[in-house]
Design goal:
The protein is of the alpha/beta class. The chain is built from ten helices and eleven strands. The protein is about 40% helix and about 20% strand.
């Protein structure tokens, strides 16, 4: 059994005619007929009913036709993968994304990359605070999207391109606020729990950003958990603005206005790469597309 024999078998099954299959495949009718007979001999089965003017599949032929289609699809996929790799394209690239970034804004670009390079796996790696930048510094990611507010840029061997603005905003539930009718500053919330997302990198090791002395605190490792705890009056803290829109609208969360605290922290997000790490063909195209991308905030 050979792939070209299966191709002839499938084409004849679809067209019902040796003549039409010959015209489509640019092969002689005798060559196609001989190939199908060889298949039938190898399978010890009749694939076509030849008693009528139009060739029709036998019951066995119908079963094998479906399997032949799948096999030919797999063979095509194998050829495409081999060609993709032979051109030097990467098997996979990793994009580390700081979790406060609104991923929805780049979905059109990611869809384009998916369509353009279907054979390259795109790994989206979610990180917190310094984790995304550390991922490209340590060559654990190809590209990263992160704000750079907490870093000394002169010490970072990175190329960066601005993408969009964002913000972290202080929120709490109305139930928590009702427990403090005279709420004015963060001191009034000392006995409430501040919910803090832990850094997935090492850049803020032994440093607690925006946490006052004596503050009760809980630590979580994702914004989803933090949001749930805040909505259920178990604490307060900063969340990415895009995660608070619906909660503020439906009343499950309220903006805090504390006199002694930055209640809104503006962020500038960049696409970044390590200067010392050469990009492969796919990653280079993705980098250029990010640089030319018009960001849409939903």
């Amino acid at each position: 059994m050979k792939l070209d024999q299966l191709t002839m078998f499938v084409t004849v099954a679809q067209l019902g005619s040796l003549k039409q299959a010959s015209e489509q495949l640019y092969k002689t009718q005798p060559a196609i007929s001989q190939s199908i007979k060889q298949l039938e001999s190898g399978f010890n089965l009749a694939l076509f009913n030849r008693s009528n003017y139009r060739l029709e599949l036998t019951d066995a032929g119908k079963v094998l036709y479906k399997k032949a289609l799948r096999l030919l699809d797999e063979a095509t996929s194998l050829e495409q993968s081999a060609l993709h790799l032979a051109q030097g394209n990467e098997i996979s690239i990793t994009i580390a994304i700081e979790a406060s970034f609104d991923l929805k804004g780049i979905l059109p670009l990611l869809k384009n990359v998916q369509n353009q390079f279907p054979e390259t796996q795109i790994i989206i790696k979610q990180e917190y605070i310094t984790g995304a930048i550390e991922a490209i510094q340590n060559e654990q990611a190809t590209l990263c999207i992160s704000p750079v507010a907490n870093f000394n840029e002169s010490e970072l061997a990175i190329d960066k391109h601005f993408l969009t603005n964002g913000a972290l905003i202080n929120v709490a539930s109305q139930t928590l606020i009702n427990r403090h009718p005279n709420l004015k500053n963060s001191q009034d919330l000392l006995n409430e729990y501040q919910i803090i997302v832990q850094d997935s990198g090492k850049g803020t090791k032994d440093i607690e950003l925006g946490v006052q002395q004596g503050q009760r605190r809980w630590y979580v490792n994702d914004f989803s958990t933090k949001k749930m705890l805040i909505e259920n009056a178990m604490g307060w803290g900063k969340l990415p603005d895009y995660l608070t829109q619906q909660g503020i609208k439906d009343g499950s969360m309220v903006l805090l206005n504390l006199d002694d605290t930055r209640n809104k922290m503006g962020l500038k997000y960049y696409i970044m790469k390590n200067k010392s790490q050469s990009l492969g063909p796919v990653a280079q195209v993705v980098w250029e597309q990010f640089k030319n991308y018009t960001f849409n905030r939903y």
